[in-house]
Amino acid sequence: MDSLAGTQSFYEETDSRRKRTRLIIALVLIGLALVAAWYAFTHGKDGAAAGAGGAGEAASTPSVTVVIPGRVSVEAAIAATGTIAARREMPVGVAGEGGQVQRVLVEPGQWVGAGQTLAVIDRSVQAQQAASLAASIRVAQADASLAQAELERAEALVSRGFISKADMDRKRATRDAANARVRVAQAQYAEATARNGRLNIVAPAAGLVLTRQVEPGQVVGAGSGVLFRMARGGEMEMLAQMAEADLQKVKVGTRATVTPVGTDLKISGQVWQVSPIVNAESRQGMVRIAVPYSDALRPGGFADARLVSGTAELPLLPESAVLSGPEGNYVLIVDQNDTIARRPVKIGAVSDRGVSIASGLTGTEKVVALAGAFLNPGEKVKPVVQKSSR
Q1: Cα-to-chain-centroid distance, residue 249
Q2: For the purposes of burial, counting CB atoms within 10 Å of the CB of 194, is it exposed (0-12), middle (13-18) or buried (19 or more)?
C-alpha cells in the first residue's frame, strides 16, 4: 500500500511541474507578442509622422514662374532731359529812328511772312519832310531846265560873235551845277523815303511770333531793345543735357524721340549738333535735337528725350520681373539650390517688348517673372520655367 501511494504521489508531482512549465512558456510567448506589437506600433507611428512631415514640407514649397532671358538684339537708348527752344530765334527791334507806335498787327503764336509789318510807327513829321524834299527836286529840275535853255540860246549866238567863249563856259557850268542839284535833291528824297520805310517794324524772315513786348502809344527808339521774338520757319529744338559718358555715344544724325512734359505726344527728331565742350562742374554736355513744329512744343518748356544710339545684345525681361527699392533696381533669381537670391541690375531701354538689362545679368539666370515682391532672399522655391517673350 505504501508503495502504491508513493508512486501516485510521484506522478502527481511530475504532472504539476509540467503544468507550471507550460504556463511559464505561455506567459513568455504572450510577453514576446506584446513587445513585438508595441515595437511595431511605435515605429509605425514614427514612420507615418515622418512621411506626413515630408509631404507637408513638399506642399509648403511655393512654385514660382521663372524666365531664362538669354540675349536678344535691342536698341541701345539714352535718356535725357532738357528744355524746348526755337532752333533759330530772331529778336526783332527798331531798325530806324523810331517814334510812337500807332498799331501792333500781330500776336504771339501767329505765323508771319518775310517783310510783313508787325507794328506801325507814326510818321506824320517824316512824311512832311519827305514832301519838302520832293518839292526841292522839282525846284532843282526847274533851275536845271532854265540853265539848259540859256546854254542853248548862247550856243546859237556864239557863232555871230555876240557871246565870248568864257561866257559859254560859265553857262555850261551853271547848267551842270543845276543838274547836280537835281541829283542831290533826288538822293535826299530817296534817303528820307528809305528812313520812313524803316520806321515800321517788320519781320526779317518768315516764321512764328513767340513774344510781343510793345503796345500802341509806346514810344520806341534805338534803345528800346527787343520788341518781338520769332522762330524762323517755326523750327524748334530740344536742348538736352547729357552725361559725359553718354555724350560720347551720340553723333550728329542720331534719331531721337521727344516727349513734352504733361503730354503723351512722341515727336520724332534728329540730333543736329553735339556740344564740343563739357561743363566742368556738372560734367554734362549739350545735345541739340531738331524737331518739327508742334502746338505742344513751347520754348522754355521741359521735355524728355530718348536717343537711339545703336543696337546691342542684352537680356530682355518682362516689366513684372524688374523691381525697385531704395538701393535701385533689382531682380530675384533662383540659384542652383532652388533658393531665391537678389541681383542688382541696371535698366536699359524700355519698350513694348520688355525691359532690357544693361548690366547685372548674363542672360542664363532663372529670373522670377511674377510675384517677386512676395518672395524673400534665401527662401526655398520650386521654379517653373516659362519661355521668355521676344
Answers
A1: 16
A2: exposed
Cell numbers found for residue 247: 555724350
| Measured distance CA(294)–CA(305) in Å, rounded | 16
Task: Give the model's confidence band at 236: pLDDT under 50 very low, under 70 low, under 90 confident, else very high.
Answer: very high
Question: For a pLDDT cut of 70, what percent of the chain falls above it?
Answer: 85
Query: 50 CB contacts (<8 Å, ≥6 apart)?
Result: none
The rounded distance, in Å, linking the Cα atoms of 272 and 89 is 16
**CA dist 79 to 20, 82, 239, 249, 299, Å?**
103, 11, 13, 12, 20
Cα angle 294-295-298, degrees, rounded to a multiple of 5:
95
Would you put residue 386 in left (φ > 0), alpha (ψ -120 to 50) or beta?
beta
- Kindly list the distances between the CA atom of residue 359 and the CA atoms of 279, 320, 344, 380, in Å, as whole numbers in the listed order: 27, 18, 9, 26
Report d(CA 212, CA 219) in Å as an integer: 15
d(CA 199, CA 100): 10
Q: Which three cell numbers stand for residue 189?
A: 528824297
User: Quick check: 101 and 120 in contact, CB under 8 A?
Assistant: yes
Contacts of 10 by beta carbon, 8 Å cutoff, 6+ apart: none
Beta bridge partners of 112: 207
pLDDT band of residue 271 (cuts 50, 70, 90) is very high
